[in-house]
Write a structure and sequence with these properties.
The chain is of the alpha/beta class. Helix content is 48%, strand content 18%. The chain is built from 16 helices and eight strands. Residues 59-79 are annotated as: Disordered.
Amino acid sequence: MPEPVDVVGDARRAFAEQLVEEAKAKGQQLVGPDGVLAEITKLVLETGVEVELSEHLGYDKHDPAGRNGGNSRNGTRSKTVITDIGPVTIDVPRDRDGTFEPATVRKRQRRLEGVDAMVLSLWAKGLTTGEISAHLAEVYGTQVSKTISKITDAVIEEMSDWLLRPLEAVYPVIFIDAIHVKVRDGQVANRAFDVAIGVTVDGKRDILGIRPSNGAEGAKFWLGVLTEIKNRGVGDVCIVVCDGLKGLPDAITTTWPRAVVQTCVLHLLRNTFRLTSRADWDRLAKDLRPIYTAVNEDEARGRLEECCDKWGKYPAIRTMWESAWPEFVPFLDYETEIRRVIYSTNAIESLHARMRRATRARGHFPNEQAAMKCLYLVVRSLDPTGKGAHRWMNRWKPALNAFAITFEGRLFPTDQ
């Protein structure tokens, strides 16, 4: 059976080949302000707007049906728009009544959406306003420095909607950690922005939200943060992994009474190393491993005593582990698949790494909202759909089965 003929595709290809041949004959470039691509873009945009006007008026251009029929064409006006290939000047048709609202290139629109998306992407990668402006000037020969802030400010409303969007009813795990960003508030100082990430029953990473702490972290603050998350639909959480944040454990159990508060084991180990000389790290790591790989709390307690006795020259190790013990020991109750998931807040730290790259390039932010906008744009660049969900891990199913057995009846409540 012969393959179907792609008439439209062949016609487009022939048209493109014709344009290329004509450009070669004239010595014309394919790209650039006066290149073939600019001509094609101009033609497509003008054709699109002309078709829209014909639909608006009810007759085609030069059609006698439009004579003496009320509203009609009223010439054109020249307009330059910034596109993915640079600035393009087009002739936009008008109507006498002034009621024509084109969608191809809207009134007062000076940039196509692709340019806005590019600016937001570069901003999220850590480029400053000056660097983005210089890049666009170099690549496209156009200046947009005055509009970059307008482009990024346009996502503030979108960010507000994202922060209030409905969430899943159940999360097997939620991770909470803070990232510190320099903000000028009278003087430049580090400001904590708390990030919460949940792992859904389907094994997806769901960025629940970002919230500035304003230096007011405590039980009341955390209760407000968690209540807001609960009010967005989160009825139950099995485990909340955090890093010894003051007042957070009490707020967790108040919000979700059945939730287990688990300290981040990786953070606990890192904090232990901070108390010791770098020369001792390798040997200390070997002595710490039997504690968090123990089969139960009794074995872990014995290993901790051995480690603290051996490293008696660092007495703060014992004090720190004793203080963290109530939030550490739940880790020992779970099988390997669950331990692998809750071992650390790496789910957040990978996001924080991207956020730090974006924030460090700017040095500091003039206010809290500017910092929030930057952090949100990083999230947005990871998730263009705005849903905040990413695949958590390839081996989620074994972990899901372990969660379903350990927290029987909670992952799939019967009333859903």
